Amino acid sequence: MKPTNINNIQTSFTVQAKNFENSNMNFSKQEYLDYTVHSMELRSTDCVLEAAAGTCACGRSVAPFVQSVVCLDATPAMLAVGEKEAKKSRISNMQFVNGLVEEIPFSDGHFDIVLTRLAFHHFTEIEQPFSEMSRVLKQGGKLVVIDMEAAEEELREVEDRIETMRDPSHIKNRSKQEFANLFEKHGYAVTKQESIAISVSLKAWLALTNTPENIAMEIMALMEDDIRGGEPTGFAPYLKDDEIYFDQRWLMMIGVRQ
């Protein structure tokens, strides 16, 4: 089942692909990648799927410690960047597959670990992707979900509105409880659940998606008003070194399929 926003996703991430490997971007910073790898408790025999992988930055960090990694993504431009980086790093146990997380092209119980990072907020509905990730995961295997956590309830709508202004492929950030409900519904024992605050430069955040200048200016004005005590945005922006920053809340949840 093709998601209704697939064209927005492919358009947005084709634009983002050229900047996705920038080490200044949080999702490419090695310290966060290393922490994720450590948290997954990998084995040399593991077959791993990174779903909605983008350039597979996390999968490339995982690859030296496992048997194989499959990177699945809907945007060919992102996969092309990832494959180029893997070759540059002489990683030979990776496969790059163009496909949808709603229709994962692998058999039931194929993988020991399924990982998805910063993807769920792009899904129009979350049940089908979660079901597909569960389907291709072995019983006793681990599902690792990392995504941005929603603002407090009264600010969720405005936060998502600003996110969508910047990136039309954004749908909505989900809460910790929404993710916990998914894991419980699908029969997982949650072994790790934590949130961390990631400092993000507003300027770099807008540049990544090549946000049109008029929209970028509108978002900046909203953030500046929030800093001055005006209407809250859900981002809780602040000034650092004369620049606007905000803290993204990244949630990591790891569950074992029972």
Automatic annotation (TrEMBL):
Domain Methyltransferase type: 49-145
SUPFAM superfamilies: S-adenosyl-L-methionine-dependent methyltransferases
Single biological process term from Gene Ontology: methylation
UniProt keyword Methyltransferase, yes or no: yes
Gene3D superfamilies for the chain: Vaccinia Virus protein VP39
Alphabetized GO MF terms: S-adenosylmethionine-dependent methyltransferase activity
Keyword terms of this UniProt record: Methyltransferase, Transferase
PANTHER family the record matches: METHYLTRANSFERASE
Name this polypeptide is given: Methyltransferase domain-containing protein
